[in-house]
Amino acid sequence: MADVAAVNSLPADALRFCILTATRADETRSARWREIDLEARTWTIPDKRMKADEEHTVPLSDAALTILVKLRSEHTEANDYVFAMPHGRPFHHGAMRNVANRLRPTIELTVHGFRSCFRDWCGDETDTPREIAEAALAHKLGGVEGAYRRGTALQKRRALMESWATHCGVGTVVPFKRTG
Predict the structure, then answer these.
(1) Per-residue pLDDT in tens (0 to 9) along the chain, 180 residues
(2) In-domain check, residue 176
(3) Directed axis angle between helix 112-125 and helix 10-21, to 10°?
(4) Fewer Cβ atoms within 10 A, N terminus or C terminus of the chain?
(5) Which residue in 24, 29, 56, 97 is the catalytic one?
(6) CA angle 34, 18, 86 (to 5 degrees)
(7) Is 26 inside any structural domain?
(8) Domain CATH number, residue 29
(9) 51 catalytic, yes or no?
(10) Which of 89, 112, 130, 140 is catalytic?
(11) Is residue 118 part of a domain?
(12) Is 149 annotated in the active site?
């Protein structure tokens, strides 16, 4: 994360935000200011942009908010995209991956892999209940469990995302070797 933070580019800001929010690359790349509530510290992604076709509210950590506040000062009312290029549209879909791969050229990274890192961290390094970790990733719970689970656990997810941001800021990078 420190290496990504040292890169001064919109895709690098988006990559950091994507990692901190544990969202998908296209959800981040297409984020709009009208979805962000800085006061409530949330980002509500509409159902039409979600893989599960259900609206998802992401609690924003202090670190994620810092990125947004920086970008907000550069925002023009004519452009609603949070990560807008000068032409007013989001950057190329592979731009965040390119940032990561320039920083770690010997490892083939994917942006989606950071979601997997988040899930592994939740399961291996925290006492986060499975359903809270899955809700943070906007995964649907199946069967009876999914039928009965109607709450969003927003406050529990908020604490989780703050802990994730702390981990990202001070955690040790462990290189993973590709198998197979």
Answers:
(1) 888 888 999 999 999 999 999 999 999 999 999 999 999 999 999 999 998 888 999 999 999 999 999 998 876 666 789 998 888 888 888 999 999 999 898 888 888 999 999 999 999 999 999 999 999 999 876 655 554 555 679 999 999 999 999 999 833 444 433 344
(2) no
(3) 30
(4) C
(5) 24
(6) 60
(7) yes
(8) 1.10.443.10
(9) yes
(10) 112
(11) yes
(12) no
Helix axes 95-103, 10-21, angle to 10 degrees: 90
The tokens for 14 are 């988006």
The span from the first CA to the last CA of the chain, in angstroms, equals 27
Domain assignment of residue 133, given as a range: 2-170
| Per-residue confidence (pLDDT) for residue 172, from 0 to 100 | 40
Where do we find the tokens 């291996």? 124
Q: Which residue has the tokens 């703050």?
A: 162
Contacts (Cβ under 8 Å, ≥6 apart) of 16: 1, 4, 5, 63, 67
The pTM (predicted TM-score) of the whole model is 0.86
Among 165, 8, 176, 172, CA closest to 99: 8
Active site residue 148: yes
How many domains is the chain built from?
1
Active site includes 115?
yes
Q: What is the pLDDT of residue 160?
A: 96
